[in-house]
Amino acid sequence: GKGEYRHFMLKEIYEQPQVIGDTLNALFNPAERTITLPALPFALETVERVTIVACGTSYYAGLVARYWLESVARVPVDIDVASEFRYRAPPLQKGGLALFISQSGETADTLAALRHCKAQGLWCVAVVNVPESTMAREAHAVLPTLAGPEIGVASTKAFTTQLVVMAALCLALARARHAIDRATEARLSRGLAEVPARAAEVLKYDDALHALAQEVAEARDVLYLGRGTSHAVALEGALKLKEISYIHAEGYPAGEMKHGPIALIDETVPVIVIAPHDGLFDKTAGNVQEVIARGGRIILLSDAEGIAHVGAGVAHAVTLPVVDPFVAPILYAIPVQLLAYHVAVIKGTDVDQPRNLAKSVTVE
Ligand code: F6R
């Protein structure tokens, strides 16, 4: 049941410190700070290219993973939504690695892509939350997310646990490929090990996010901006908002604003910026100033340093804890979930069962 919570979605958001910890503990030895993946039928050091296929929120987990796998494990990544991948006829390298990310393990397009890749001779690994699902059965190997049953149609804890699995896979690949030195590996592992505790800290900002929800609930359109892994979080934030509040929202790479969407900016369009103080922060801060100069209302999700450096004119800022940039997308996913949740509650929608949506999309 929902216990003390009003909706399954809220309960599942609050379960994240626990289920992130469970997922991590199955892959990670905290004393030695090393990743141990379940047995794989191929050697990680032979992986030269990764293909990622998924839908919806699971696809956004794949987008985060692309940044990680390319920048940390130095492996080229091809990623697409399953409904496009299936019909693109991409040339695939026999013996390559394909990852299928799916909460349900039953999504029709993702499953079809898995079957296609398997027939082409790729190693197929399923990152799934339902261990007895079709994808888990048909893949060569499974990397499980231990989120437990996700009842709310809007995916929350499945997303953050998918990210934990992908981060662990990234570290294991980076080591196998000799792509990172020991010091970097130790720093990234430490960052990952701290995620459950940091997630609990981030949940304490629920009231601050709730306080912003009224303004967002009054909007007709909302933009979410970010760069790097925060771009994927922006896309996820926009998807969460539109699916449960029915407010039109778009996620954009912050640097793409000036190529079109900046035309939408006026004082009625809240612009939610995901920007931990990382290596891309100054670039995003420049985009924030461009929005402010056009009368846009910025809601900034950052840390104390980011907020100190963004400059004047931000309408609202939420000061989140300082986190390692590597794991920031896992932690910044939580405030965008909470914000969407509170907006939907104000709007009076059916948060756990939004209209027109099914938990598991088993038709093409
Ligand atoms: C969004 C959402 C959907 C799913 C998508 C894929 O909150 O729930 O976008 O992420 O339908 O589903 P799975 O992960 O089961 O393949």
UniProtKB/TrEMBL annotation:
Highest taxon of the lineage: Bacteria
Catalytic activity as recorded in UniProt: D-fructose 6-phosphate + L-glutamine = D-glucosamine 6-phosphate + L-glutamate
Keyword annotations of the record: Aminotransferase, Cytoplasm, Glutamine amidotransferase, Repeat, Transferase
Compartments where located: Cytoplasm
Record's keyword annotation contains DNA damage: no
Positions annotated as active site in the UniProt record: 359 (for fru-6p isomerization activity)
EC numbers: 2.6.1.16
Biological-process GO terms, alphabetical: amino sugar biosynthetic process; carbohydrate metabolic process; fructose 6-phosphate metabolic process; protein N-linked glycosylation; UDP-N-acetylglucosamine metabolic process
GO cellular component terms, semicolon-separated: cytosol
Domain SIS: 40-179, 212-354
Gene Ontology molecular function, alphabetical: carbohydrate derivative binding; glutamine-fructose-6-phosphate transaminase (isomerizing) activity
ATP-binding keyword on record: no
Chief site of localization: cytoplasm
Protein purpose: Catalyzes the first step in hexosamine metabolism, converting fructose-6P into glucosamine-6P using glutamine as a nitrogen source.
Subunit field text: Homodimer.
Designated name of the protein: Glutamine--fructose-6-phosphate aminotransferase [isomerizing]
Organism of this sequence: Pararhodospirillum oryzae
